[in-house]
Structures are given as C-alpha cells and as structure tokens.
Design brief:
This protein has 512 residues and is mainly alpha-helical. It has 20 helices and 2 strands.
Length: 512
C-alpha cells in the first residue's frame, strides 16, 4: 500500500512537472509569437513612419523616444523624472529639430516629454494620493479651473489648448516633487539635481559666444546657450544662482575645501553668464536677493554689494543696457523704442482696447496675442505677447483670473513660510525664488517659458514638500506630547486617589 502511495505520488509529481513544463512551453510560445507580431508590425509601419518624418534623423527619433519614455513610465517613474530634470535644460537645441506637423499642430519629442510628465504625475498621485497635501492642490485648483474656462472662450483654440497643457505640466512637475522629498536630505538632493542640470548650458555657453558673438544685432550679443531665447537663459540662471548660494551656506551640506572653492567660482561664472544675457529684470531680481540675504543672514556682505553697482557699470554690456533706458522713449515704432518704452506702449494699447464687459473674465487664453495685431499699431504681422504676466492674464482671464494667479503664489509662499522655524535658509531661498519670479513677471512672458518653469516649479514643489514633512513631524510630536501629558495626568489622578483612600482608612481605624 505504501508503495502504491509512493507510486501514485510520484506519478502526480511527474504529472505536475509535465504540466508546468507544458505551461512554460506555452508561455514561451506566446512570447515568441508576440515578438514576431511586433516585428512584423514594425516592418510594416516603419517605412510609412519614415516617409511621414521625411526621412530626417532627428524626427525619426520621436518613435524610439516615445517607446523609451513609455517603458520608464511603466517601470521606474522617478528615474524618468530625474533624467528629465537633469537633461531638459540642454534639450531645446535638439528638440527643435524633431518638430513635425500633424493636422496643422506642431509637435515633436518635446511634446512627448510634456505628455510623459503629466502622465507621470497622474500615476504617482493615483498610487499614493496622501503624499500630495490638499492645501497645495487647493492653491492650484482655482487657477487651473479658470484657465480651463479660458480655453473654452479663446479665439485661438489650438494655441489655447497648447498653453493649457503647458500650465498643467507645471502643476505636474510641482506635484511630482512631493514624491521625491520624504526627509530633509531629499530636498538637498532635489537642489543638487537642479544644479547638475546647469552643467551642460554652462559648458555650452562659451561655444555660443564663439559662434554668435560677432553676429551682433540691435541689442548686441545676448547669450542664450542651449535655450531658445536669452531671457530664458537669464531666468534659468536667476534660479540656479540662489540654489548655488544655498549649497554654499547650508550647514547640513558638507563640502570639502576644494568643493567649496569650486562652487564659489562656479557661482561667479554663472553671474558672468547672467550679465551676458543682458536681461535687466533678472539682474535686478538677483541683486535684490543678495541684498535680502545679507540683511537677514550676513550683513558684512552689504559692503561688497554697495561696491557691486560701481563695478557693474565698468562692464560695457551693463552700461549700455542701462543707458538704453534713457533714449528711445517715444512711441514712433518698435525699431526706435527701447524695450521698456515698447512694453509700456503695448500694455497701454491692450488695456485701453479692452471692453468693460470683459474686465471680469477676460477674452480667453492667448487672446492677447490674437488681438495684438488689432490694438497695437506697431505689431506688424507679429502676434505679440504682453511681456507682463499680470497684464496678459488680466486681458485673457479678467480680474477673476488675475486673482487666482496671485492666490496661487500667495498660498505657496505662505506654505513655505511654515518652514522658517526648522530650516530658515531653505525657507528664505525658496521664498526669494518665488518673489524673484513675481518681480520678473512684471516685464516678461514668464509663464510661457516652459523649461525654466519646470525647474522653478520643481524647486518650489520640493520646498513645499519639505514644509509639509516638517508640519507632519510637528503634528506627530504634539500628539505624542499630548498623549504623554494625558498619561501623566491619569497617573497623578490614580496616585492621588490611592493616597486619599489610605487616609480615609487610617482615619476610620483611629476612630474605631
């Protein structure tokens, strides 16, 4: 009988192994069949795809890039976001060559990256919604809702949808930062990621100088490095320079003597690049940031900052840009106006053209650009932006839109302010970056510079995440303290009750 059991067990075991082998064989067959089908489809599709891309190598990279981003999106989202943060600053000079048109809508690898960022944020939030505080969501929600309504009434639906997706990608980058930061050291890592992103633009800057310094122009040479416009380079440096200062002054960041000297020289180099962009608003914003830091942290730096304007006037690029403000103030034509007078002219023209019935909700997203050829005499054939976020957003979304825009930055700043007690320097740098952004928004199309805004909102999101973690730790500490206090009160009450009981018993025994 025992032998029969063994025999039957062995037969069952062998049958199980045979079944597993058969299953594995079927799985291998299905996988092989899948590979063959994909290969056949690729063989059919690739010739048509190559023809649609006009057989240009850069455009052909769109499909492989889409597959790579899709793979990382499924299996390692934070790695994908890390790669985007480190390398996106150098992407414009390459991504511009990948653009192609589908039904009149231009896109390319850049569009694929934008879509991946939005999908990445959605997947992170769905997987763990508790990591993203409701307070910061409510800061963004009114602005996004107003922008959505603005798309519906926009006179330029295609451009409005593109702008709306760009704004949505800013929120996606901001929200994704909360999934990077769990402890204070993670915030430092995020800062380092953003600083590492400046390596390629900084290294490419001398190449841009060598290739284009002799070309000149109405304003002379303006450095733009890997970006599509000098102003974007300037505002990007306006973000990198305060973060470099943070790494130099942060006590939690341990730098060797060589590392500290190297980082100081790097910041001086970045300041030189900032001057070459000839973007005055970025100069002023950085100067205000350094003065604020000196007043709050190291007042001895005020002496050096007092000498800085004198030294700056010795630099031809700075002197010429400042002298330019004293001429060309008559609105005769854009060629004869300095940049500030031209801005005043287009602001005045747009606001005077607005009808009072549109003051509340505006004309729709991207309406300023659409109507600029109507109300601005010097527009020519160009659809101009307002070069002022407040004017443009008032024109596009009305008073309601402008209030939601200010609400967003106000709530974010207030949220970061709660970090002051735990990390004063990090709170200062983050709030300074927000204020610099708002100051520069008064003279440029800040909200339209996608690459810079990604780095800005990732940094601000990381600071908000650090503040949220600090608030959570404080709440837990208060709860623990409350429980300990409650326990002590209960223990004291029990001790007092026992003492009272003993006194009563002794009193009764005495009377007896």
């Amino acid at each position: 009988m025992f032998g029969n059991r063994i025999g039957s067990g062995g037969a069952a075991l062998s049958g199980s192994r045979w079944a597993d082998q058969r299953t594995d064989s079927h799985g291998t067959s299905y996988a092989l069949l899948g590979v063959i089908v994909v290969a056949l489809l690729a063989g059919v599709v690739v010739p048509f795809y190559a023809g649609a891309m006009d057989y240009k190598f850069a455009r052909l990279l769109v499909l492989p890039a889409l597959l790579l981003f899709g793979f990382l999106l499924m299996f390692n989202r934070l790695l994908l976001l890390t790669l985007i943060i480190v390398f996106r600053s150098a992407g414009d000079i390459v991504l511009e060559t990948t653009r192609f048109s589908i039904g009149g809508y231009e896109t390319g690898v850049g569009g694929v990256i934008n879509l991946c960022v939005i999908m990445l944020a959605c997947m992170l939030v769905v997987e763990n919604p508790h990591r993203l505080p409701k307070k910061v969501v409510m800061a963004w929600l009114p602005f996004i809702l107003v922008a959505t309504a603005g798309v519906a009434v926009s006179p330029e639906k295609g451009d409005a949808i593109r702008t709306w997706l760009t704004m949505l990608s800013y929120f996606a980058i901001f929200a994704s930062a909360f999934y990077f930061v769990r402890v204070p050291v993670d915030f430092r890592r995020c800062v380092k990621l953003v600083l590492w992103s400046s390596a390629i633009p900084a290294l490419y800057a001398p190449v841009d100088i060598l290739l284009n310094a002799g070309a000149g122009g109405p304003e002379g040479f303006r450095l733009q490095s890997t970006f599509t416009h000098p102003n974007i380079m300037a505002f990007y440096l306006m973000l990198i320079i305060p973060l470099t200062l943070f790494m130099l002054k942060d006590r939690a960041t341990r730098l060797s003597s060589a590392g500290r000297i190297g980082l100081m020289l790097y910041m001086v180099y970045l300041l030189g690049l900032l001057i070459l962009t000839q973007t005055r608003s970025a100069w002023i914003a950085c100067l205000v940031m350094f003065i604020s830091y000196a007043l709050l942290f190291e007042r001895r730096y005020l002496i050096y900052l007092m000498l800085l304007p004198v030294v700056a006037l010795l630099v031809p690029e700075v002197r010429d840009r400042l002298v330019d403000l004293g001429s060309g103030n008559e609105a005769v034509g854009y060629a004869k106006l300095n940049s500030f007078a031209w801005r005043l002219s287009i602001w005045e023209s747009g606001l005077q053209w607005m009808q009072p019935s549109h003051y509340l909700f505006g004309y729709g997203v991207d309406a300023f650009r659409h109507y600029s050829q109507t109300f601005f005499p010097a527009a020519g054939k160009i659809s101009w932006g307002a070069h002022n976020v407040y004017v443009q957003w008032f024109f596009d979304a009305g008073v309601i839109g402008l209030l939601t825009y200010l609400w967003l930055y106000g709530r974010v700043t207030f949220f970061i302010k709660t970090l002051v007690r735990r990390d004063k320097l990090a709170a200062f740098i983050a709030i300074a970056i927000v204020i610099m952004y708002l100051v520069s928004s008064a003279s440029d199309n800040m909200f339209g510079y996608l690459v810079f805004n990604w780095y800005f909102w990732f940094t601000v999101g990381a600071a908000c995440a650090l503040a949220a973690r600090a608030q959570a730790r404080s709440a837990r500490a208060d709860a623990d303290a409350g429980q300990n206090a409650g326990g002590n009160v209960g223990a004291n009450a029990a001790t007092n009750a026992a003492a009272n009981a003993r006194r009563r018993r002794s009193s009764e025994a005495g009377r007896a």
